[in-house]
Peptide/nickel transport system ATP-binding protein
Amino acid sequence: MTSGKLLAGEPLIAVRDLSIAFAGTTAVDGLSFTMKAGEVTALVGESGSGKTVTGLTIAGLAPPEARITGRVTLAGADILGSTPRQRRLAGHPALSMVFQDPQAALNPVLTIGDQIVEAVRADGRTGARAAAARALELLDLVRIPEPGRRFSEYPHRLSGGMRQRVVIALALAASPVALVADEPTTALDVTIQAQILQLLIRLKDELGMALLLITHDLGVVAETADRVLLMRDGRLLEDRGVRDFFDGPRHPYGRALLAARPGRRTRGEPRPRLADTSAPHLISGEGGGAC
């Protein structure tokens, strides 16, 4: 189905047998999962596990040299291989991405307001005045103080936390039904990280979006996620409810990750060996969204 209309009981996002390769090297191998509207799904794994390129591919931002097979649907519309612009032209619902480094994500030579206005007007239907009004609304929505003043400022005048709020406002400009947030707090001070996570959860609740949270931080997962997708070497190892995962991972790699957390080992107990825990098969919980 390619209509972009969600049928009753149909997942908002469905990823089926997604594989991504670069120059003969497989980065993601047969990944399948689903997401519901209003759900926070944490995509967890070490560096090199394939989680970031998965997020980029779902968002339509995969590198051009990537060889991609499989199927990804958003609200029933097949979106795999299409860019955000192509999705807009086809009338599909929007899916936006929040990047890890807000300084790199923003244009240093354009004001905050100009960047958000440009994003709002990407639909080709919104006039300049309406787009400026919408940009101010978005700045207020992400809790930036004095949005009228910040509208005319450049990114370098803002703190890291405020820049990330602007990146989130940019992501919301297309009125997305889902967000992919790739390590959205890693580049921020510890004192700001919780604020940004709380903001994302609040926006998810207020706007009814699905949120795919890409992270390696199990503490963040425990506090924010409804479900956990555990990846390693491009493969999905577990698809579990967050409580079930932390109560007792079924995959040896998941158990080793939890055991490796600070304070989990007694004195003299050997460190878990993650290298000994690889296995090719998915272990899912009852009612898990993956096949």
About this structure: Confidence is low (pLDDT under 50) at residues 286-291. The chain is about 35% helix and 25% strand.
